[in-house]
Amino acid sequence: MADLVLGLAKSAVEGTLSAAKSAIEEEKKLKESMQRDLMLITDELEMMQSFLHAAKERAAADEMVGTLVRQVRNMALDVEDCIESAVLVDMNKDYWWRRLIPSCMLPEAPAAALDKAVTAAQLLKSRVEAMGQRNERYIHMGDSGSKPTEKTHQQAVADAAAAGILIEARNAKKRHGSPRDFVELINNKDHVLPLQVISVWGAAGDLGVASIINKTRDDPGICSKFSCRAWVKLTQPFNPHEFIRSLTAQFYTNLHEQRSAEDLLTKPFNPREFIRNLMAQFYTNLPQGQRSAEDLRKQIDAMMAMEGTKLTEEFVKLLSNQRYLIFLEDVSTTVHWEAVRLYFPDKKNGSCIVVHSQQLEVASLVVGKSQQVLELEQFSDEHSVCVFFNEKRSCPRYLIELINKKNEIHSPLQVISVCGEIEDLRVASILNTCDKNPDFCKNFNYRAWVKLMHPFNHDEFIRSLLNQLYTNYCQRHASAEDFMKLKYAMVDAAGGVLIKEFVKQQMNNQRYVVFLEDVSSRDDWNAVSEYLPDKTNGSCIVVQTKQREVASFCVGQSHQLLELELFSDAHPVRVFIKEGEDEERAIKMKAAEEWLQNNPLAGRATDADNLNANDRGVRFVSGIAGVGKSYLVRNVYFRKVIKDKTFEKFSWVDISHLFSIMDFSWRLLLDLHSGSLRHANMLRIRDPIQACRELLKMHNCLIVIDGVQSTEQWDSIKAALAFEHDQNRSRIIVITNQRSVATYSWVVQGLEIEDALDLFQATASTRPGSCWPSEPSPAEIERAKSVLHKCGGHPKVIVAVANFFADGWIIPNDYFMKVLENHQAFRSLADLFCWVHSYFQSCPDNLKPCIFYLSIFPTNHNFRRRRLVRRWIAEGYSTDNKESTADEKGEEFFYELCMLNMIQVPGTTSLTYLTRMPLCQVNGFFREYIISRSMEENLVFALEGHCRANSQRSGRHLAIGSTWDRDMIVYQSIDFSKLRSLTVFGKWKSFFISEKMRILRVLDLEDASSVTDGDLEQMVRLLSRLKFLSLRGLKEITRVPQSIDGLRHLQTLDIRHTSVVTLPRSITKLQKLQHICCGTTVHLDDGTSTVESLPPPPAGAAAAESSSSMSRQRAATLVSWLRLPESRRRLAGSCKVGIEAPLGIGKMMALHNISVIDVSVASGQAVMEELKNLSQLRKLGVSGVEGENCKKLLSAISGHPNLKSLSVWLDRNQASFLDAISQPPEELEDLKLYGCVDKLPAWIKQLPNLRKLKLQMDKITQDDVNLLDLKWLNTLCLSSKEFQYRELRFRGPFHRLWVLEIDCNCRLQSVTFQNSSVMQQLEVLRIRCHNVSSLKFSGLQHLRKLREVTLSGSYDDNVKNHLKSELGKHPRDIKPVLKES
User: What family does the Swiss-Prot or TrEMBL record give for this protein (predicted)?
Assistant: First the structure.
């Protein structure tokens, strides 16, 4: 959590520095002493900013630095508060002194108030200076001692890699055939192999390493194999003579003198002792009969006379004649390893070096490419001892595994050609392998090794074959009857009776393996084949030849030929294998069918459908760890294996945490060639990269690359294999946790709650011995849902929690994250937590406060995107810079958190639809993670349930939950002196506002109730620092007080859906106000197809009435509307109302958004005239547009440089005026036209950036529909009373349309999508019906990406049934989903 603190501190300092500079530049009336203090503080803040950048690497590990970071943050916030209090914001020079510290609420003399501000600034200056002195003093003290290990971003990444390696090592240990311990691993090495290097690494420490090495060194089997053994520790810095001394000391320890290695290591190094000790060690390890003290003395004396290079050469020469096992402890760098490696020659006699390193990277690199990792011993969840090794195999074992690769009795005859010397294969040891490889013996009852004679002689071949079958027959694993037949046949053959037919018959009935030595021609092979039939019983023939063309001929000439080489350079043997494409695909299809049967897809229809597209090139799939990316793609991949005939080859390659492009290419090639080559590490291709390139050129391949960890890895793969996004014949799907790997990727989001419940139920109820019922009660379902909301939709977490419940456990609500992080049952989530920890440590500092801020909102609570972004801006988390505005940066932050699944959009997983961001939620899992961190920073605290009074309860942000019991005593015990935001959920109480909240910036009551006009007046009077005030949805609020001008810093005023119908004139004094959200919309469950406004204000003479009188009349009308019973509201239609804006609004130069204002009032035309002055306006909503004021509106927006959103409510028969605009605003992205529109304005076609269009018309014609085919349009909403020919017919392509909404009545009879090119990107179709009894749809099959159709309102069942039938005809395997709402 130190990283979050640091991010908060940086954000605070940056915001305060900006405020201080602005104060110095803008305020000319400040007292000179205050200006000097602010300048000094500004300089110090810049130093603080530099300090925070430098402290990033130490704050997490150094407690003193962490404390200083917190002090810097708090100081920055206090400075900012002082600046906001002292800086003059009243542009009236006569009253500039009123802008003082807000605690001075009572009137006082200007000079006294200014003196107080000056005193506050001087006090802050003193604090800043004192902090600098403390910093210098304590940092020096800290530097004098030992410095803690600095945890950098790279270290965070390394921690993530280490956790991944640990998981991989533990999985390897579970696999059948893995070595059980270190001794077995070393003993498995054959004597003929080259020098082996094995590394030992302790995850989270070196506990247990010494005991494992000591046990291995003293093992009798190890002692018998390695005559020379030593265990030495490398000193730092590395020195060759020091290393030799340590090695010698270790050898000498095992001699007759009973001295410890530690004692010897502490003695001064004497180079002349080196050979003496080394020879003593060798002497000790020699068999008793070969020991001679005299010989030892003579050799030592001879070598003692040597110095320098000569000594080293003799030492290397001495080791060359021995098979040695060396344990090197504490190799810290690869440089040290390279230096040490020179002293150990490789004579390919099976010697071995075991390297111990505390550094994961070193342990990995010393082994070389294509290493494997294995857990030797586990001491805790976090700590294990692991080994890295390179599985180099000698010829006998290699051939055994290669022969056994098709271990199926019904497989066709396998022919393997070996092009090289047969002596290297040691065939006799393979055939007589019953003890070492009993499975091989069981699989092949008949085993023979026959050397062909030249010219070929049939009789001699049969004799040799029978002799070998008899000699190698194992009666322990085969029948005595077959053995006796062979014995009699041998007698007959020896007597000169040739029994060719008998041999053919016997070979027909048995599964055999025959080695044919020295096959020199095709004729030889053809002659031999007569006696070795293929009865598809899994038999195998190994052909040895020196002729490459003969080797190829025996296997079978075809492009299916695969050429491989042995790993070791000592065995220049080429192996030819013919892969059976049909057979291998059948194997993969069988595996795919089994996986799909056992692993149903839950709630991923949209994602799977998108990935199912047969687009060529590269497709990226990203998402956080545990969200189910691999599971989803595997489902798509296996379905392609079974059904898709366009791909010829398939491969799934997991990227190892120890990435090597050669290893990756090798595994990719082997998987493409053969799904049954399970022992991929036994072979090496001469140039696997080039082989992969050629294969991708020749075949259509579907390749999945899972676990790409960085752009460097992907760049390496892409360059090596020449992947071209738009030119490749194959389809490559890349799965990654890092969105930076690709500019565009399909981001996998969490499961919806119902899908999560299905997955939970399926997992918990099917677990053996489950305590969870197969048919849970409603109470049990609700209990499960309350936990699932905290799982954040992550399948991995859901499955782990389901298994936990199935075992009879429960998770207390307040300890959800603690249980997940610490309970043994959730060890499978280690990689997820590792990713989360790593991200929180490495994410941008300015994003960290935004993440922490999310915990304000309760679990499963919806909020609007703009609400959160504007709060971030008010808090100073998103500020202007040279590249972007605060609003743009806030949108970027929001998008980033959506991509990380920290913010979710309920009801959809499609990113195209996600861009609309209707309502959002905080991901439950991340919310629990944030609130479970250390609360020492007191950033966010909440009141829930029943709380006790606690004077220590304080923080920057307070959230009052709906479940809190509203205890005044508890509330008044809270320290509000630092409080910056207050968010209320549920019932409001008047005591929630306190005069102690002098620096409160954000007051969010959007989810509150029972707030009155009197409460609002109290807020305005006491909370003069407010920057964000939301009263949205509070119908009890009927007016905005005139004292609103006291909120000089206010940026956002949200009174949408209140009963306010007019804005006070005083609001025009708020020069920092950017957003005014006002007006009221009443949505009805089954409203009409057009919008009916409230009764309009009086016309003619009535228009001359005072605005106050009109406001009261309209307020009374609106209040009476809101108080109508629900049934009467349905009869009256829906209500959309703007509010009256005051004159002078054109002076509010900072205004970005004002919506909705009513321009039908007397001052309406003057207000629209003033709108021309608002050049920074981005969003405008106006109602009551008619006649002359329509022209005024068009004049105001004509050519507007920044307007992006326009909403217009037209009175009757005013649509014709819309064509009178001289220059449409080119930046317009969102256009809404409401009212009785009978004709679309032609200038819609002139809006190059229009993304969203919502129309409410009297009648829609075919010409109107054709006009709507706009290049960049994403969302189209249509509502009308009448439809030409009672149909909607879409002909144009609508290239980028994602969402289509149709609001219709009984007059619409059909909706047609005319051809296969229409709306190819459409994903969501929404139909809202009003008393519809018959509505037909045609052409839905043309909408290739349609995934969801929503049907709502009032309609007959035949409409639903018809729509369901049409969707069932959709050509995709995964049909679009029909939803009713």
Answer: Belongs to the disease resistance NB-LRR family.
C-alpha–C-alpha distance, residues 701 and 684, integer Å: 22
pLDDT tens for 598-632 read 888 887 877 787 787 656 788 899 888 888 899 99
| Consecutive H or E run containing 609 | helix 605-611
1215 closest CA partner among 1249, 1244, 1239: 1239
Report helix, strand or coil for 1378. strand
Measured CA to CA, the distance from residue 356 to residue 375 in angstroms comes to 14
- Identify whether the C-beta of residue 453 lies closer than 8 Å to the C-beta of residue 460: yes
Q: How many CB atoms lie within 10 A of CB 1060?
A: 26
- The number of helices, as runs of H, and strands, as runs of E, in the chain is 47, 41
Other beta carbons within 10 angstroms of residue 1102's beta carbon come to: 12
Q: Is the peptide bond before 1156 cis (omega within 30 degrees of 0)?
A: yes
- The whole-angstrom separation of Cα 1197 and Cα 1239 is 20
Q: Model-level pTM greater than 0.70?
A: yes
The first and second tokens of residue 913, run together, are 């639809």
- Per-residue pLDDT tens digits for 115-132: 555 666 666 666 666 666
Bridge partners, residue 942, by sequence: 959
**3-class DSSP state of 78:** helix
Among 1056, 1075, 871, 1050, smallest CA distance to 959 is for 871
1081 phi, psi to nearest 5 deg: -125, 125
Do the domains 582-678+686-747 and 395-578 match in fold?
yes
Strands of the sheet with 414-419, listed across from one edge: 446-451, 512-517, 540-545, 414-419, 574-578, 561-565
Sign of CA dihedral 557, 588, 438, 474: negative
Please state whether 1090 falls in left (phi above 0), alpha (psi between -120 and 50) or beta. beta
CA angle 702, 706, 707 (to 5 degrees): 155
Number of residues assigned to the chain = 1381
What residues contact 156, with CB distance under 8 A and at least 6 apart?
Answer: 837, 838, 841, 842
Does the N-terminal peptide bond of residue 1097 adopt cis geometry, omega within 30 degrees of 0? Answer: no
Domain boundaries along the sequence of the chain:
2-151, 156-389, 395-578, 582-678+686-747, 763-932, 1061-1250, 1258-1380
- CA dist., res. 1012 & res. 432, Å (int): 95
Question: What is the three-class DSSP state of 562?
Answer: strand
Token code pair at residue 30: 């400040």
What CA–CA distance (Å, rounded) separates 801 from 1049? Answer: 47
- Work out the angle between the directed axes of helices 711-721 and 661-673 (0-180°, nearest 10): 60
Q: What are phi and psi of 464, to 5 degrees?
A: -65, -40
Q: How many CA atoms lie within 13 A of 678 on its CB side?
A: 13
CATH code of domain 582-678+686-747: 3.40.50.300
Residues in contact with 574: Cβ distance below 8 Å, sequence separation at least 6, in sequence order: 418, 419, 420, 548, 551, 563, 564, 565
What kind of architecture, by CATH, is found in domain 395-578? 3-Layer(aba) Sandwich (3.40)
Enter the tokens of residue 578.
């013919």
Q: How far apart are CA 1158 and CA 288, in angstroms?
A: 109
